[in-house]
Amino acid sequence: MELWFTEYQTPAIGFSCKSTSTLRTEKTAFQDLAVIETEQFGRMLLLDGMVMTTEKDEFIYHEMISLVACNSHPNPENVLIIGGGDGGTLREVVRHPAVKQGTLVEIDERVVQAARDFFPSISCALDHVKSKVLIEDGIKYVQENENCYDIVIVDSTDPVGPAIELFSKSFYANVYKLLRDDGMLVVQSDSPYYHPEVVRMAFNGIKDIFPLTKLYLANIPTYPSGLWSFTIGSKKHDPEQPCHTHQQGCRYYTNKLHEAAFQLPVLVKQIIGNGE
Ligand code: SAM
User: Looking at the domain 58-271, which fold is it?
Assistant: First the structure.
């Protein structure tokens, strides 16, 4: 008998992939967690029925959410990651030669454990000498610290459950205070095709706080519609211009692609109010 997993990316669109086995299902204190084996994408981490990361295409998202900021900030020594419990973003951050410390603040320790148990290629940097892993609410964490990070990366679930406030203006304002005077914030800002309202909320929320706000895109096969957006707020430096050439070991990111990722289709410009 064939087994298929389907993520309902909208009430009218399903993303299905053939699944060969279920490796873990559990209800954590925050969400439903599952790990399944799939033919096309290898192991897949699901939270509340949504694809978080897969062995086969995780590198696209993790390189693009990490390296655009790390390569366009002249001195990205101290980087904070909110969420990101699978460890993929942390792996890319601590791989960057200019980074001195990557701090991960993940609310659900069961996500970190599942990553350690089933995704060694993604979670491999959790114990890296440059890594620090804290299990707590990122919303609280940014309220209790100031002026100490060069880059903050919000690698969160979509605005549901504990992540709702991670898309709020008050959270962005707290991150602004947490950042040094030339710091950058980058967030995953969802699918322009299926969730333009989330893209608009994140972009406008950050634009109201940061002097320089830009959006860039990547193609991620297992994310809703395959076209994914990231929004970056900067206090000083232009995120479109890489000032580091680090791309060694990357399978998606290049310095040229870094600049090209900010070239937006008209429909995306219209979502963020830069329409022609
Ligand atoms: N790449 C995925 C995406 O774009 O949807 C996100 C992957 S990562 C697994 C998302 C993580 O954010 C989850 O592990 C979740 O527990 C965490 N998270 C959600 N709200 C949080 C909060 N308030 N503080 C810290 N972590 C949070």
Answer: Rossmann fold (3.40.50)
Pocket of ligand 1 from Cβ distances under 6 Å: 30, 47, 52-53, 61, 82-86, 105-108, 111, 137-139, 155-158, 162-163, 166, 188
- Catalytic, out of 86, 108, 150, 155: 155
Domain residue spans in the chain?
A: 3-52, 58-271
Q: Which sign does the torsion angle of CA 239, 240, 246, 247 carry?
A: positive
Q: Backbone phi, then psi, for 125, in 5-degree steps?
A: -100, 5
Structure tokens at 93: 């951050």
**Which of 43, 106, 188 to mutate to test ligand 1, by most ligand atoms within 8 A of the CB atom?**
106
The count of residues in the chain is: 276
- Domains 3-52 and 58-271 equal at CATH topology level: no
For domain 3-52, the question of CATH label 3.40.50.300 is answered with: no
Q: From first to last of the 276 residues of the chain, give the pLDDT tens digit.
A: 889 999 999 999 999 999 999 999 999 999 999 999 999 999 999 999 999 999 999 999 999 999 999 999 999 999 999 999 999 999 999 999 999 999 999 999 999 999 999 999 999 999 999 999 999 999 999 999 887 999 999 999 998 888 889 999 999 999 999 999 999 999 999 999 999 999 999 999 999 999 999 999 999 999 999 999 999 999 999 999 999 999 999 999 999 999 999 999 999 999 999 754
Give catalytic status of residue 155 as yes or no: yes
Which amino acid is present at 15?
A: F
How far is Cα 116 from Cα 107, in angstroms, rounded to an integer? 16
Cα of 71 vs centre of ligand 1, distance in Å, is 23
The residues that bridge with 27 in the sheet, in sequence order, are 32
Ligand 1 centroid to residue 199 C-alpha, Å: 17
